Amino acid sequence: MRLVSEQNPEDWMDLLLPGHSLYSLRGPAHYEFTHKILKDEASFFDGQKIP
């Protein structure tokens, strides 16, 4: 999962979100960042491919 700042798109963070997970965002993470699940070909975390 990738969070990208709406104010500065150069500020982003990838999070490992295992399949069938539930996540909850609040505060700035919820309101000031976009959240997206990456396409399979772009899905890497810490150098490892995540299917």
Automatic annotation (TrEMBL):
One of its GO terms (cellular component) is mitochondrial matrix. One of its GO terms (biological process) is fatty acid metabolic process. Its cofactor is Fe(2+). It comes from the Eukaryota. PANTHER family: ALPHA-KETOGLUTARATE-DEPENDENT DIOXYGENASE ALKB HOMOLOG 7, MITOCHONDRIAL, SPERMATOGENESIS ASSOCIATED 11-RELATED. This is Uncharacterized protein. The lineage of its organism: Eukaryota, Metazoa, Chordata, Craniata, Vertebrata.
